[in-house]
Amino acid sequence: MTTTADDVRTIALALPDTAEKLAWGQPTFRVAGKIFAALGDDDTTMGVKCPVEDRAELIASEPEKFFVREGHDDNYAWLRVRLAALEDAAELTAVLTDSWRQAAPRKLLDAHPELSVPPAAGG
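Above: the chain's sequence. Below: its structure in token form.
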């Protein structure tokens, strides 16, 4: 399966209180007015929220999937994802849901416990 911009749109808009809005000429997906995902210029990549401290590990572990745009993403808590490198819709859903959780207000997170981070195995 090749993940597409349409898949991103479908999954992102299924998340609670998400809206699509153009910014910089590109589709962005927002929760409570905060961007949590944005499609790239050619619809083959997307940007998602990612803590800066986690980016290097993700990029090192899967460089074919994750990257940053040097000079653009350096100072922001964002990570780029190559859509074609995602395994399936479940992985895309996991990436988008994680980004959504980082942008969503606490009240919305509390109202949707089904979207909370699953407990770590063995702990």
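The first helix runs from residue 5 to 14.
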